[in-house]
From TrEMBL:
Residues 50-375 form the Leucine-binding protein domain. This is Extracellular ligand-binding protein. Belongs to the leucine-binding protein family. Pfam families: Peripla_BP_6 (PF13458). GO terms for biological process: amino acid transport. Keywords: Amino-acid transport, Signal, Transport. It comes from Halobacteriovorax marinus (strain ATCC BAA-682 / DSM 15412 / SJ).
Amino acid sequence: MLCYTFMTIKFIHTYQGEIKVIKKSHLTKLFTIGALALSLAPVSIAAKREVKIGAVFPMTGPVATYGQESVNGIKLALKKINQEGKVSINLTVEDNKSEPQESANAVTKLINSDQVDAIIGSVASSNTLAGAPIAQTNKVPLLTPASTNEKVTMTGDYISRTCFTDAFQGVVMAKFAYENLKKRKMAIIIDNSSDYSKGLSKVFKKKFKELGGKLVSDEDFAYIQKDTDFRSLLRKIKRTKPDAIFLPGYYTEVGLILKQARQMGLNMPFLGGDGWDSPTLQKLAGAAVSGNYISSHFAPDDKDPRVQAFVKEYEAAYGQKPGVMAALGYDGILVMANAISNAKSTKRSDIQAAILATKGFVGVTGAITIDGNRNASKSAVVLETTPSGNVFNTKVNP
Ligand code: PHE
């Protein structure tokens, strides 16, 4: 410390002395720049910042494609980050098995045993909601790239997200149903085990009714995660004759619901949110995915050159097109790395302050600005689901 202070003083002294010299001639100017560079060297070469980041993702269980894609996206971004040379990230991935309790355990482990500087994750809102209070209590920055439920960031000032919220996504789909598809009488099916599903359905209902739409019943039709037979529920809905159905669930159950619904002659459009967005939906539902629409964060067929460059880079690395979670994971870790390189130090409180200062960070899922509620205000895309993949329909700005 003494030595550092001494060098700083010496540097200022040299700098002030030489500023006058600069004006004299080109020759002395060149010499001065060299001398200045030398005198700057000991204090200005910033050491590469080394940090430990914990990642909590569903690598197994009903939403496993989200974890696998997220980690692929994050690893692709890490190559870039480590090459740039400002930040070196040591990543520890924990599998939460698509379960809230496992998510809480993973966060505890990352903080207590691995002593990570920050955490990225998770995907399903109920899982993030289970881990976030532990990160908050320990004042460890936790950034989710994908959890859209309103309550997530309300946990506290150490919890932020780089995606939009369901308050936005729900409105986008209610308007799409009413204005674009001209639907007037809808049924709603929710996943009662998911905070995401319950929150998103509330926003949708409120907006759809405000626009003038009607619901076939005030009560939602409900199932829970891991259910496989939806026929009695669908039979009840069929009797109410809706002209469209809002189904804010995750792809595993949604795939089965769509298939069973079409077999029972329910041929109206189904609408959903980002939770449908996985290639496994197409595998489970087959032809039954046709004619339905969802809101999401990213469209691989978006013409934006930044998106296309990412799609190419991802395909070269993994031999397949990136799904939405690959793009969200990629952007999430890039925002974190950017914050770490801008932070005053690698102290957790400084990293968190830098994450919250993120403004206009241009990612593959849009421009990311963290607002006063630690959410990102970003555009959404509406996609049509087809057996060969989701097709871009419209982009909606906040
Ligand atoms: N938004 C979903 C949730 O909060 C998670 C999700 C994000 C799913 C992106 C798919 C794609 O639970």
